[in-house]
Amino acid sequence: MKMRHILLLVGLFPFLLVSCEEVIKDFSIQNADPQLVIEAQCSAQNDSIYVYISKTADYMNPVEYPIVTNAHIQLFFADTNILIPEIYPGTYAAHFNFPTNTAYALHVNINNDMYIAESFMHEPVPITNVSTSVFPYSAYIASYPDELFYDIHVFFQDPAETANFYRIKIWKNDTLLNNASHFIFFNDKLFNGKDYELLLQAYTFEEEDTIKIELMSIDKSAYEYYNTLEEAMTSTGNFSMPDNPKSNFTPSVLGYFMTYSSSTQTLVIKNEESTLQEYIP
Amino acid sequence: MKSVILIVFLSFGTLLYAQDYTISGYIKDASTGEELIAASVYVPGTTYGVITNHYGYYSLTLPQGSYTIEYSYLGYKTTSYIIHLHENVSRNMLLISTATELQNVVVTARARDQNIKSTEMGTQTLTMQQIQAIPVLFGENDVLKTLQLMPGVKSGGEGSSGIYVRGGGADQNLILLDEAPVYNASHMLGFFSVFNGDAIKDVKLYKGSMPAEYGGRLSSVVDIKMKEGNSKEFHTTGGIGTISSRVTVEGPIIKDTSSFMISGRRTYADMMLLFARDKNLRKTQLFFYDLNLKTNYIFNNENRLFISGYFGRDVFSFQDMIGTDWGNATATVRWIHLISPKLFLNSTFIFSNFSNKISMNSDVGDFDLTSGITDFQLKEDFQFYFNTKNTIKFGIDAIYHTFSPGDLKTNLDNLSITLNKKYAAESGLYISNEQTVNDYIKLKYGLRFSNFTVLGPNTTYTYNENHERIDSVVYATKSIIKNYPALEPRFSATFVVNTTSSIKASFTKNNQYVHLIQSSTSSLPTDFWIPSTELTPPQKSMQYSLGYFRNFKENAYESSVEIYFKSLENQIDYESGTNIFLEPDLESYLLFGKGRSYGAEFLLQKTQGSFTGWIGYTLARTEKKYTELNNNKWFPTRYDRKHDVSIVAMYQFNTILQISASWVYSTGDAVTMPSGKYIIDGKEISYFTNRNGYRMPDYHRLDLGVTLIGKKTEKYESIWNFSIYNTYNRKNAFMIYFESVNDENPDVLQAVKVTLFPILPAVTWNFKF
């Protein structure tokens, strides 16, 4: 919950009645030289690792994001190391039965410059139950008088002995909900070791929609990356001083390397009373 | 440091004993009985002279002999009389306002050439007449917004009442209302200040050389005094404005002995919502109110008691879903005692509280988030009119702070969070002397010893790089966790070149022990105060300034140029991505950096005649530097505006009509905008380079005002005030965002500016009976 956004909106409310907007000419963006971006995700769920290497593009008109080819990438874990080949220009991937509870190190060599990042793959945390209910304030959201809004309840048992970091992904009929407002990650600081019910509010679903929930166990560096990424994603720069997210690569680049394990559950929306579907691994 | 003390003693030692007598008393407005602050008492043709202190008291010591003594205050008839001084004399003086016919619109200021002769520099005084005459947003007179029109004082952006003095932060102003600190001086996210003009008598701003009696903030002191209340007859004044209404009642309880003043203001922006079509909107509450109270009792010439208080709240609620309630409460009990005609003692007890509550109700549970700060303070201030050449001030004060950084209460058992309250004692001990060395040199030197004691009960932690607690110490109630003692020298000198010009210099050192943690660059009620602790060192500043003051045409025009350099230490920021709310380990995320601010301030002012006003220009730069931010490079602060111009003009046509205008221009704010973008996780992410590396477009605006006396009799007065904000409808950018040019090419962006206030007329009707 971004309290400050709510308050800002609330406070400006009477003034927004008189405010106006127009395209501005005397303000321009100075584009920086293209910067290296490495995004690497290794999943125990999908037994895969994907690495995307690209560069930053023009902010106002990103005709294309330059891709970086011919990188030499190696993944080290346990006593093993595997090469990750380039499957499309700028996309590198490999499949393996990746072990959980294991430390991983990624070495990316681009034109003899080496970028190294480490990540720890935690055990998955099973979702014990998922249900939905109708968001009780649907009626008051005057702009959408005919829509029903749903809450999703995700239940899981947080492991007590470790600090846990999570991300949740939601699919609606096999489409990942992936805009900024669906970017959900959290830690167990407030509920360590508890049987926890996570509430996700105000989703627009329709009857017979199939909803899939993925609970990802991520590590601390990924959580910190997301935490700082969110600011870069949502801040307009008008009322705060956003910074680039905190990468776990050395030397630092844009992007991050993350390993994760996950558990999933699906359900089908049935009228206002949604019911739990069978656990599908 | 030692040399300063040495000077103090040397100057006492070298004073020759002479048969001197003292004339002392209060100077008051003849019609209302209000004490006049900074009125002048002097002997024409000599250098003997003094001005009244904050309570209207003066004490002038002269060698035995005959003198003509002149009492003057701008806007009042100068009164003089001849006295043969051969014993101590107590003389209270009533001055008659020359503006009785037009009390609300005549601009008065301080005594004639005081700006040349006094040791004060970097100060601004405003009278309520000035504040009332200058046009403002929605016609809502505002003390702080008027101060923004002075050089060296920057506003917090469009419509904001926030003030940023010589590169200082929002929390670095010591804002005092009848000596009580006001921790959040704004309503409605900063658009209005908490000071209701009807209840205010006098405003003084110290930008640089703060006297030694003030301490605890780095950049400025805004000293606001409430009206005492008319001690002669009952009056009701008030006004009905575009967004608020006000009413003030004042009068004697016992004539010339005791009076009271009670003043209230409430906005009604939400009243418009009553007519909203949507019935849910009609249930929305959005308003603020202020209540000021003051009463005094004069026991005799030596003893008077004042009690004053302020209470203000912002209320917002939307349905039963979210509600907020925040505001300040202050109380001051002051006893003024004249130990002798030369020794003035002011004993004060002060209470101040800022609290903030946000409530939310949802189907998972109800939440109440509260935070705040509470102060209890005791002060003993002595003013010793030692002789004709020296006025010594000394005193002590002690504040007991209670900080409540956050408390989340819910009806769910596993989610309530209470951050430990923190306790601290802040104390000060000071002495200063204002010395007239000869006809040309005047000095003011002082030393303030401040001490901040972090007190138990509390549990303190040490942290590793990952913000994990590695050690803890438990402290019992009233045990001392940490002491921060500091010496703060204050020095200023005036060299009077001739009767119309002078050169002044000053040096000031300051420490600040309480810090505001803000979640964004705008003022939000969720901002909260934290104390210095063993992990959070005090903020420190040093300021040097030099000025040239020159008056023209028999003091009708005043001009000044001041340059300053200020260095800042331990400026607080926090790491990117830190969630500052309810973070028990917040201190491990704080960053401490350096700051520097320098600039030149030009002011040309006309204070007399039917045409008055001023032109102010500031050329300035403010930067900060943190090891952890912006690659350890200096970056400009948000309100680093290179050029800042304000022109204010008021013209009195006749006894019923006055017009006023103000024009402001400033360099755009420094903001952080992207310099590229990339894809992560299937989303477009902005790439940032330099912190605050972009500039908003330049800001300028013209406001006009007309004051018209509708009806005026002995008993009743009706005044209309019309104003136009942003007269030529300049579309100043409040914020800039980027959107797709069209749907076919969603990736091609254009910049769009949001303008908050177009041309906005307002009307206020004021009455008095």
Description:
Chain A folds into two domains: 118 residues, Immunoglobulin-like (Sandwich); 106 residues, Sandwich (Immunoglobulin-like), CATH 2.60.40. Chain A is mainly beta and 281 residues long. By secondary structure, chain B is mostly beta strands. Chain B folds into three domains: 97 residues, Carboxypeptidase-like, regulatory domain (Immunoglobulin-like), CATH 2.60.40.1120; 111 residues, TonB-dependent receptor, plug domain (Ferric Hydroxamate Uptake Protein, Chain A, domain 1), CATH 2.170.130.10; 544 residues, Maltoporin, Chain A (Beta Barrel), CATH 2.40.170.20. Chain B contains five helices and 51 strands. The N and C termini of chain B lie far apart (56 Å). In chain B, 49% of the residues are buried. The N terminus of chain B is likely disordered. Chains A and B meet through helix 1, strand 1, strand 3, helix 2 and strand 18 of A and strand 44, strand 45, strand 49 and strand 50 of B. Strand 1 of chain A pairs antiparallel with strand 50 of chain B, so a sheet runs across the interface.
N-C termini distance of chain A: 31 Å
Please summarize the sheet with the most strands of chain B: 22 strands, antiparallel, barrel
Say how many strands of chain A there are: 19
Tally of DSSP helical segments of chain B: 5
How far apart are the termini of chain B? 56 Å
Specify the structural class of chain B: mainly beta
| CATH level 3 topology of the largest domain in chain A | Immunoglobulin-like
What multimeric state do the chains show? heterodimer
Proportion of residues in extended strands of chain B: over 45%
- Largest pleated sheet of chain A: 10 strands, mixed
Mean pLDDT of chain A: 85
CATH topology of the largest domain in chain B: the name is Maltoporin, Chain A
**Low-confidence sequence ranges of chain A:** 273-281
Helical content of chain B stands at under 10%
